[in-house]
Inverse folding.
């Protein structure tokens, strides 16, 4: 039975390979897709990455990933180079082709590819591939200070949204550095703050709340984090996922918040209102004295 099944599969692969060269682009697309489903040799699928039709090229990249998922093999530098050339030719013009290329690259040990000197579209694809590649997450840290905002954001997302706490722990010193750059997008700053909050860096959170020039809504969020320090909410503050934290010592938040009352209460009315709520939660009684000094 096994021999018969093997023979049938080989026959199907031969027929699909023939169909992959058909004059009709949809026949080529479906044939290439099925070559992945029957775990054909990725090298036999790779020529379709050069097809004139974008739909065929997309299915070819996905088929390579599918084949490698069904029948894992050692990473092939030549195949990785072909996929990277596919991404370079696309140059981020078609998002779905970028997605397909990133999925294929994720099966080819993307951490072994040095992408920092590549163009932004390639760096972005590598970050997306690393996010999908188990065990390669630490390579994402190299992109946290990328000069392209999209690449940086995807790296921050990949690390923050990962369930790997050790990865976030390694990245937190970089997140703390990012908080000093007020021009970064809110999506980056929210995740940097949240990762540091989850890791218990009360001093960094309080320092950000006291930073003049930082976005008001993010300073308010930092204060709210200090207010919830002792009993963190069960749902993640950014993702909304169930990611509970254990109860913590409120003294950590008090110690971080108290020395910064002056610069915090020197902020906007909304910031002062949130600070007053947090001070009440933390039983900090020096607020009145701070306000008198400001008058």
């Amino acid at each position: 039975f096994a021999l018969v099944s093997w023979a049938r599969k080989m026959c199907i692969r031969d027929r699909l390979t023939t169909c992959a060269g058909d004059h009709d682009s949809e026949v080529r697309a479906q044939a290439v897709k099925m070559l992945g489903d029957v775990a054909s040799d990725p090298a036999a699928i790779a020529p379709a990455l050069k097809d004139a039709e974008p739909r065929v090229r997309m299915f070819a990249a996905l088929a390579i990933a599918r084949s490698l998922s069904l029948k894992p093999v050692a990473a092939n530098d030549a195949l990785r180079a072909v996929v990277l050339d596919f991404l370079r030719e696309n140059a981020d013009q078609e998002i779905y082709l970028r997605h397909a290329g990133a999925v294929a690259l994720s099966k080819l040990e993307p951490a072994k590819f040095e992408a920092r000197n590549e163009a932004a579209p390639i760096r972005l694809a590598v970050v997306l591939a690393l996010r999908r590649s188990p065990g390669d997450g630490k390579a994402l840290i190299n992109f946290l200070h990328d000069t392209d905002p999209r690449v940086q954001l995807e790296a921050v997302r990949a690390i923050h949204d990962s369930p790997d706490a050790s990865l976030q722990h390694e990245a937190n010193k970089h997140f703390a550095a990012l908080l000093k750059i007020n021009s970064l997008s809110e999506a980056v700053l929210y995740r940097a703050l949240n990762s540091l909050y989850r890791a218990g860096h009360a001093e960094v959170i309080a320092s950000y709340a006291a930073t003049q020039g930082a976005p008001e809504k993010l300073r308010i969020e930092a204060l709210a984090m200090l207010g919830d320090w002792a009993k963190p909410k069960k749902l993640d503050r950014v993702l909304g996922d169930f990611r509970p934290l254990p109860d913590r010592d409120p003294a950590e938040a008090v110690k971080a918040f108290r020395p910064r009352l002056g610069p915090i209460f020197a902020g906007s009315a909304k910031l002062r209102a949130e600070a007053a709520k947090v001070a009440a939660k933390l039983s900090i009684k020096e607020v009145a004295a701070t306000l008198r000094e400001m008058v």
Remarks:
- The longest helix spans residues 2-19.
- The chain has 16 helices and no strands.
- The two ends are 90 Å apart (CA to CA).
